[in-house]
TrEMBL record:
<dbReference type="GO" id="GO:0004806">
    <property type="term" value="F:triacylglycerol lipase activity"/>
</dbReference>
<dbReference type="InterPro" id="IPR029058">
    <property type="entry name" value="AB_hydrolase_fold"/>
</dbReference>
<dbReference type="Pfam" id="PF03583">
    <property type="entry name" value="LIP"/>
</dbReference>
<protein>
    <submittedName>
        <fullName>Alpha/beta fold hydrolase</fullName>
    </submittedName>
</protein>
<keyword id="KW-0378">Hydrolase</keyword>
<feature type="transmembrane region" description="Helical">
    <location>
        <begin position="35"/>
        <end position="55"/>
    </location>
</feature>
<dbReference type="InterPro" id="IPR005152">
    <property type="entry name" value="Lipase_secreted"/>
</dbReference>
<keyword id="KW-1133">Transmembrane helix</keyword>
<keyword id="KW-0812">Transmembrane</keyword>
<keyword id="KW-0472">Membrane</keyword>
<feature type="region of interest" description="Disordered">
    <location>
        <begin position="1"/>
        <end position="23"/>
    </location>
</feature>
<dbReference type="GO" id="GO:0016042">
    <property type="term" value="P:lipid catabolic process"/>
</dbReference>
Length: 427
């Protein structure tokens, strides 16, 4: 009788994590892959749902807050005068980034001529109890958005968008306050590149932060980009005399506007240069014109250039860029009739609003993108050299392959540890 072939014994199926494994493992691997894909898909869906909820919450709240904003900024003239830094009113912003709470603020400040004014901004603080010694304040100076009331960063759907590094500062435990600058948001005198006005606005915003339930201490650091760097440098120069109750720890700036005469001359052959100088010429003639009758736009600008300035000053850099380009482009090469940096009284006005005439009493961090075509690296380098000659402790961070728009965000990872190293940590 022939022998039957020997059949291998079948291995009983194994059970692993609830999955039946076939003897050859093929079905098992397929099922494991399907299981992994299913789990990953569920996780991705959850993340998307949470992210969408967060974004939708902020957008929905922001749209409502933008719609309600005009009433908040309206003034009647009955507010009277009050010490700078006095809060007129505030309102909670439900569009605050996750992990923070925020307020829109209207407060008293002063302009370059010493007048009591009202200006606006936002305050953002971490959620939860502050440490016993309180939280350090970061007073932020925003880059150019325009000069008209509607160009104020606090007015839009997302009033936090232009606060570069906001999430990092909040996560680190700082209170962040962002002034709009006078004439933006609330009605008031022009402030574009007028150092004493911008600087006072930043310092008074920090004062307001201490009156809200933010846990803010008296410790202050200043942080600004472009026009905001100009504002932060002036606030640093003014702080000891203007706001002696605040303890200034450090100043950090990214691509700051420094030597205004040289900056205008370097940029005047571009649309951006014509636009920015129009904002400045409008502000200077408005603020200083009444006391300086010979500060006439027609002394330095062509007739077409002088006629264009008021219209450009009413337009915002974001959202109305096309209109600005339409006005500015034909003026390239046909804008100036004289150099404002050498023509009085413009020469004196530009010099008085150029930061660096006095040494900062605290350490200074300066970041500059090396491919910046708006604030040129050589101008920032010259400013750093002058500051060091005055005895200022300066850290200068030159960032390769970085233009004007990206420099502040790229500097934040170095700004935070630097602040901690010089005593400006969040505590």
């Amino acid at each position: 009788m022939p022998l039957s072939p020997v059949r291998p014994r079948r291995r009983p199926p194994r059970y692993s994590a609830g999955v039946v494994e076939a003897s050859d493992g093929t079905r098992s691997r397929r099922r494991r892959r399907r299981w992994v894909v299913t789990v990953l898909a569920a996780l991705v869906a959850t993340v998307i749902a949470v992210f969408t909820f967060t974004v939708d919450r902020r957008v929905d709240a922001g749209l409502i807050e933008e719609w309600q904003a005009p009433a908040f900024y309206g003034t009647t003239g009955s507010e009277g005068s009050a010490p700078p830094g006095t809060l007129v009113r505030s309102e909670r912003l439900l569009s605050a980034p996750t992990g923070s709470e925020a307020w829109r603020i209207l407060y008293h400040s002063t302009d370059a001529l010493g007048h009591d004014i009202l200006t606006s901004g936002v305050v953002v603080a971490p959620v939860g109890a502050a440490p016993p010694e309180g939280r350090t304040i970061v007073s932020w100076g925003h880059p150019t958005t325009g000069a008209a009331q509607r160009c104020a960063p606090s007015v839009g759907v997302d009033p936090f968008l232009l606060i570069e590094g906001l999430g990092d500062f909040i996560d680190a435990g700082y209170v962040v306050v962002a002034a709009d600058y006078s004439g933006m948001g609330a009605a008031g005198p022009d402030s574009y590149l007028i150092g004493a006005t911008e600087g006072g606005n930043l310092l008074d915003a920090a004062r307001v932060a201490r009156t809200l339930p933010t846990g803010a201490s008296d410790r202050l650091v200043l942080w600004g980009h472009s026009q905001g760097g100009h504002a932060a440098l002036f606030a640093g120069q003014m702080a000891a005399e203007y706001a002696p109750e605040l303890v200034l720890e450090a100043v950090a700036v990214a691509a700051p506007a420094t030597d205004l005469g040289s900056l205008m001359n370097a940029d005047i052959g571009t649309v951006s240069g014509v636009t920015i100088s129009a904002y400045a010429f409008a502000a200077f003639s408005s603020v200083y014109g009444p006391s300086t009758p010979d500060a006439q736009l027609t002394d330095i600008l062509t007739p077409d250039g002088a006629a264009a300035v008021p219209a450009m000053a009413k337009l915002c850099l974001f959202g109305q860029n096309k209109q600005l380009h339409a006005i500015a482009t034909p003026l390239i090469g046909k804008y100036l009739t004289a150099d404002p940096a050498t023509t009085e009284p413009w020469k004196t006005m530009l010099a008085e609003n150029t930061p660096g005439a006095a040494a900062l009493p605290v350490p200074l961090f300066v970041a500059q993108g090396l491919t910046d075509t708006l604030v040129h690296p050589d101008l920032t380098s010259d400013f750093v050299q002058r500051a060091r000659a005055l005895g200022v402790d300066v850290v200068y961070d030159e960032i390769a392959d970085t233009g004007h728009g990206e420099v502040a965000l790229r500097a934040v990872p170095k700004v935070l540890p630097w602040l901690a190293s010089v005593g400006g940590g969040p505590r």
